[in-house]
Every structure is written in structure tokens, then in C-alpha cells.
């Protein structure tokens, strides 16, 4: 099968790769580019563990083809911190212990970043519905919601 | 181990604080490496072919076409995993579950596997494998499987535990019985008796990370296995035996684990990955799809339970009896036995009897799921307890307080309790503002208690002190939810140094002595016990080194708050030496400083919790909404309270999912209808309220800091607490879990029709 040449931007860097026409963006990120922060929890868009931001839109990268990234902007968990400076959401997830096993954490952080970009002052209900596409089996979500609330307050003050 | 009996009321410096976990930054930046995040040079992609039939004889497997496909490097069937189990029935079951030998026993049972250069080729190769099945009648329901004319799943099974040896094979592998006193006499003394039957459906642990491993077998017979597991030492034992290797030649590294809850205590595809690698001569990465996780890795039991409880007018329970039937998949289990042990463990009973039946069905092999078997038993018992309290006219909390087990009570499963927390959790619930908050229309409140044994087991740690005074702690219990933070706190506490100077890691199987699984809520309990012991051994060395540096007898050196202190007036001018100072000189005083510990962590303290919840039910649709939820649980001593709260909240959330929605749905064809997160829907963020927690600390006298396990108990009460809440909301006793909208509507309609 012939490869598809893709030219895209990932976490601000220009990236080129060849992928198969049926290869998902998640497979490209993980297997071709070594960006394993996005996880495959289901492969069918149900769990959100592979969440990335594609042109300012939250997507499950298991439902996007690698070829579809052509000419677009991809943001992954690997681009969330700046140097050794964690994003406020990352810092608040740590402080609130909003992770236990941590497998869903990259997806939650990306989804929360997208949520706060669109709604900087969400209510608890808006956070809960905003993150309803991301499954966590460990925490019961309580500490995740609190971490996002706290991060929103910090980010507004910044 | 020996410990200071004055544990109670001890003040701590590090333990009980809430620092950031040592593995936290890796996890929020995406650096942490889970099962599927590791790659080896030259690795192949492994894939497994699974039976589409619930029960079928495998007549023949033709792999020739798959073998000829370009890019395929190995194809295996059961003959590549020969039976080396030497009559060990439990190991044979593990082998047969890894790769079906003569019969496919459930939809999803592995029958063949391939290793190819990429996923596409591997998928194509699976399609080219031809399996000739003779489809047999199947049975997937636990009650149906016990009937006389049910399809027989294994004709070599004769029920164990019966007084007379059965002459016919059966789907019931074992009968077990627990209890004491005379229940007939007890029921005769009762003024009120409640007798009810209950059913629960099968659920899955639902961890977000599918099973994944990378296996690499070298031509010299050594091998490496990178795998997400709760117990890499146990995986080593099982895989080595099934592959015919010496355990020491197999090095197993536990990756970060993306949830387990009991489901990653069993080997599933790992022996297959090793066999593929051995045949292909290259490393093989094998990752289950979500469909495979549901169809072929251990869900919990479906159950059918009868409960009978009698009490006097004053609320004293006179007798309690339960018969519990638990499905165990197609292989013998111990699930009904555990259910029978836990069913009445919360109560002080003169006359109690429980009987458990382990039942084979054509479903995947059952695995542990967080306090395995206890939630279903608690659902049945705590529902009946609520009904009985109502019949007597007593408040359900007061009724439970009156009958609660206490120190000195003989547990329904045999032993006599030491200090326990059931009474205190009930008192806390009675006084909790949640119990007094007003309820609206169509809303109900429920509460229920739960018990779990907890476990200790074989444990080994190494504590190494660097020349810069920092401490690395190597443990062998996999960190499933934050135990590295807890163990770092314990090491810091015992040594008297700052938490930030301790780094805990999970060592691989070649770097540390054997450790049991992280199960039975034992991770922090047992490894902290071993850590304390290792730290005390290191302190002994630190004192010796300080004595050398000062040139005084070691008996004159004490260890206080991270420093060697010279005791006695004659040493008054020596001052103190910090751990860092002693470590810096270690090269001149005898070399590296370390402490080691190996022990069997006896004395895991039993654990109790009481939960409260408020539910609103829509009588038109049968849908439910959890309005408020409160967990009260005894932790013994909460080493890192934030993660203890997290365990309480996570367990409650899983229990809420189980109670209200989650279930395996099988078609008449014996195939699983909902093997994905869309149709098997675990609670999402918008389904739940904040989950309030209250940590009680009734110290476990068998642990130097009073620690009990905390991970599992929190999933025991929710099924019953929610069933009681729904029943109170709708005025109909709910006896079938999950209480999904159709089931609630059906119960309401049955009530209306009388």
C-alpha cells in the first residue's frame, strides 16, 4: 500500500511523516513519532484517553486518520508544559492528586485545556459535562473536578 | 515483625501528610511508560484469534495459509504451548485459558496467534487461519448452569465439598460452608424473619489500559517480559512454568499500570506473547483490543443469592443464613467461597450459616475484582437487613449498631476480631449531616455496610542510602494507585528525614526477592511494614558508622530525627551527625549503607466501611440520578490521606456503576453483546456528584504504624446502599443488580399490577 506524505505541525514544531491511508492519528503519534502520551483505551472514541487538540478542537485521535493532519495544528500532552514549567492544569492535577493510575490523565489534561480555552469560568456542572467524554476508573472524578476548578481560578488570575 | 505496642496515639512527622507523589510529574507530562508504551528493536506485532462460539470442540486448525503470508514470522496454536503443568489443575486451567486445547469454552477464547511485521499483516494473517469447530450447546447463566440437564462444560468436574462423592460430573465445582451455632434454633427464637432472593449481573473491572506486554525470548533461553501487571513475580512464576523455563531466566518488569482492580492479577496473553517470541526469534508486542479485554479477560462473577435473617422485637438478630451461587467462567474458582466468608462479617451473630456454590458457565474466566465476591454478598445481606429493620420498626442505622461486630466477636467466617471499625463507622454515619438532610419527591436515601479481609503476604524491600544522603527504596509491590508516595512517606518517617529525599521505585523480578501480588489491599500495608524493617536495619548501620566516626561504642549512639546522637554525659561534646554526613563518609567507614527486609506480612487488619447515598428515580423512565454520596471507612492509619480519599471515592464510583448500569449482556447465541465502553458504560464525570469521605483511624495493632489496607472495602457497600436508596425512593424492593432503567420500570409495573 502506498504511503501518504503528511506535512503538519505538532506542538508547534513542523513535522513530516509517511503513513498508510488507514492509519489513525493515534497510531502515527505513538508508533511513528514516539509520542506515547496519548493512550489507546478503546480505539472507538469512547474513553478519551487518546484526546488531542486538532486546530483548536478536541478530538479522539483514534477516530482521526493520520492523513487528516495535513496542514493542521496538533496539540498533544507532550506540548503542554513549557520547559520545566508545568501548565497550571498539570500542577493542579498533582496538588489535588487528581490521578491514581494515571493512564487517563493525559487525555483529561488535554480535554480540560480545551474546556478552559472555551469557557474560562466553568461551573461544576459544566466541568462534569465538559469532561464526560473522558473515562477514569480510579478517582471517582471528584479530585479531577476540583483540580480543574482550582486551575481555572489560577489561570484567570494570571 | 516486632513493633512498638504503643502504636496507638503515636505522632507522626511525614506519615499523614499530603505531598505530591513521586511519579506524578511523569504522569501529567505523558512520560510515564505503561504496558503499550514500550518498544524493543525488531519487535513484531502479536495478535490472537478468538473463538466466536461460546462452546465448541476444536476439530482442526489449519494455519498453513497464514504462515505463507509475507511478513508473518510465527503462527502458534496450543501445540506450541505443550502441557508442562504436571498434574497441577490450577496451572492447567491457566494454560488452557491462554490458548484453548480441545474445546473453546467461551466467546473470545484464544485458539491461535500470530506474530507479524506490522498490525495490518497480523490482522490479515488471523483471517487466513481456518478453524473447524463442532459447536456445542452452551450455558451462560449461573442458575441455568446448575440445572440437571444443563450443557456440561467439563466432564471431569465432580462437585467437591459434598458429604457423599458425586457419581456424575457437574457444572458445580465446589460447595463450601461457613458459620457457627444452630440457625434452626435461631430462627425459632425470631419474632420477625425476612427471606429474599437476589441476583447480580457480571461486571468488568473496566481499567482504562488494555492488557499489553512486550516479550523477548533469546536463543540462550533467557527472556524478558515488559508487562502491565499487579504482580510481576507471580507472572514470572506462571509464565516460566507454562513455557518450561527456569524462573531466574525470565526477567519481568512491571510497567506503569493503567488500572487493574484485580483484573491484572492473572496471566492472559503473556504466555502467548512469549511463545510467539520463542518461535519467531524476535521480540513480540501484544496489546489487547478493548473488545478482547471484555470478551477474554476476567470479569467478576454473576451471582444468585438467597438470604434469610431473623430477629427479635428488640432488634437482636437471632439467626442468619445465605446460599450463594457464583459463576466462575469455565474454570474452577473460589468466588462463592469468599462470598460465603464475607456475607455476614459485619455482624455479631450467635447462629449463622452460609453455603457457597462455584458454578461453571460459558463465559470468560472470572478474575478478582476489588474485594472479589464481597459486593454481591453485601448487596443481598444489607438489603435483607434493611427490610428486617423496617419490619421491626427500627431505624436501619440503629438496627445495625445493635448487631454490629466488635472486638472479641467471633466472625461469621471463623476468627475472633481484634479492634475493628464497623461500630465507629456506623456511629459516624448516624451523626453525619448527610443522614439528616431533607429529601424531595421521588428521592430516597440508603445506607449499607461492607467488610473486606485485607491481606499481607510475602514482601521484600531494599533501602539504599546514596552518598549524598538521599534514599532509594526498591519495592516489589506494584503501585496501582499511589503506594510509592505512601512508602516514601514511611521511609522518611522511620529514618527521620524529609520526604523529598526518598525515591521509591518498583523493582523488576531480577532485582529483588519474591513479592506477592498487589492484591488484597496489601500494597501499602505489607510494603510499609517491610520498609520500616529495612529502615531500622539501615539505622543500625548508620549508628555503627557514627560510632566509628566518633570512636565510641555503638550502644552509646541513638538515632533521633534523622541524626545519630551520642548518648551519655561523657559524649556531651560530640553533638549530632546527620544521615547526610554519615552517608558522605560511608566510603571511609565500611562502604555503602543499606537496609534490607524480607518478611511475611502477617496481621493485615480487617476493614469496614459504611456508605450513605441519596438517589432520585424518574418513575416515568426508570432512570436514576445519584444526588449525594458519603463514604465512611476505617483506614487504620491513613499514610497519605489524599490517596486514601481517592481510593474511597474510586471504589464508590465503581460500585455506583455496578449498582445502576454495568452488566455483561449475552445473546442467545452465547456471544457477548456489549464488549466496548459505548455499550458497557462505566460512570462518566457527569453521572456522579462529589463523593464525600470521612477517614476513621482505628489502628491495626499488627502494624507498627497501625496501617490497614484501604483499597478494596470501598466497593463493598455501594450496591446495597444504592439498592436501599432506590427501594426507599420507589417503594419497591429492588432485588436485581444493576438497577438499570428497564429493570426499575419492570419492578414498578409489577408492583402496580400487584
Descriptors for this entry?
heterodimer, A: 158 residues, alpha+beta, 5-stranded mixed β-sheet, 5 strands, 34% helix, B: 754 residues, 7-stranded mixed β-sheet, 6-stranded mixed β-sheet, 27 strands, 29% helix
Task: Describe what this molecule looks like in 3D.
The complex is a heterodimer of chains A (158) and B (754). By secondary structure, chain A is α+β, with helices and mostly antiparallel strands. In chain A, 34% of the residues lie in helices and 16% in strands. In chain A, strands 2-1-5-3-4 form a 5-stranded mixed beta sheet, with helices on both faces. In chain A, a hairpin with a 2-residue loop joins strand 1 and strand 2. In chain A, helix 2 crosses helix 5. Chain A starts with a strand and ends with a helix. By secondary structure, chain B is an alpha+beta fold. Chain B is 29% helix and 24% strand. Chain B contains 21 helices and 27 strands. The chains are: A alpha+beta (158), B alpha+beta (754).
